[in-house]
# Entry
Amino acid sequence: MIIPSPANIARFLKYYEFFRHPPDHHYQGEDDPDLIDPYIYSFEVFQLVNKLYMEHFIQEFKESYQLPEDLEKADICSLVKIISGVVMADRYSPGFLSEFIAQGNLRKVVKRLEIIKKEDEDRMYGSLLGLAVGDALGVPLEFKAPGTFKEVTGFQEGGSHNLKAGEWSDDTSLALALAKSLIESKGFDPQDQMERYLDWYQEGYLSVNGECFDIGNTTREALEHFADTQEPYSGPDHSKSAGNGSLMRLAPIPIYFFSKKEEVLKYARLSSCTTHQHPLVVECCTYFAHLLQGALLGEGKEELLSPDYQPFKEEINFELDEVIKGSYKTKNPPEIKARGYVVRSLEAALWAFYKSDNFKDGALLAVNLGDDADTVGAIYGQLAGAYYGKDGIPQDWLDNLACYNYILDIGRDLVYHEER
Ligand SMILES: [Mg+2]
# Structure
């Protein structure tokens, strides 16, 4: 099923007025005004039905529907089934729609949709902001070995790039560049993404302080290859290239392609290949995109972290397979390490998510692992931000995050994007 996004829901809510006062909505023959042809809609209703179809609210062509006992709690998929069913039933038995409205059911559907839209938005903004918050919390601890530093409890200045408190690093810059590319290219354009990444590397585009002060080895190798060849899929795949550089910037993909699961997975893979084509990295990004999409849809934590919650049909790398099966549930530091090796970063982020029950505690667990603290923080923050929502991120962290409003605006543009 295609999941109606907040943008689809917003457009549906505009049509609601029309639905509340439906005109005489079946065609009446001109010669015989009493003749109502139930199979031919009036032009206005035809237009409305067409719009509902375009916004993915009509997907099942069954002429029946089941009203759940508790419409106030129905999920988006049930609502699509209800709307599809009512419209189809009305097509063959005129009067269904009017009855549905008269019984107050449409009012309830609309109320529920308003809530779902708000929750979806909150989770989407939470995922992008969570990434930046995790990055900013961890960046003062980057490259510090566990046990060699005082644990952080919030934003701190300093670190090896000497940033101000609340400033973030390459993880966020590259995620914002990916987001801007999706928005401005109106879809997935790897050439445009790489041009923006290169612009960041060479000119400091979307950097918190106007400079590229830190770059991963694999990303650098890919960008230099791209600068020479203009090949968008420039990511190396040699044994030393299995880093976390494409996992750390992933959130814009599941936000932008939210409605279609296959596209989330497909573009998660391709968005890694621009800079990281090692099969393990591509698999980690695919798995993580699957988790992010589930969290954006409001899945529970137990479901998300169950070994069966994974998108693969084929055999995958055994190290990732161990993580999916829950390696992090029985391990603790020093076995859990915030290393740049992609599968270790993913494991560390999932460990922090599993071991905590709110955004803040998990974020502090993640970044206080040290080492690649900012990136493990950014990976954790994408998932926890989607899961707990923007409202779940401490307000004083959001207030003190560098460029908060700018990141939130990009989040809005991602959610309410135009399509090609
Ligand atoms: Mg970084």
About this structure: The chain has a mean pLDDT of 92. Residues 119-415 form a domain with the ADP-ribosylglycohydrolase fold fold (CATH 1.10.4080.10). The first strand starts at residue 26 and ends at 28.
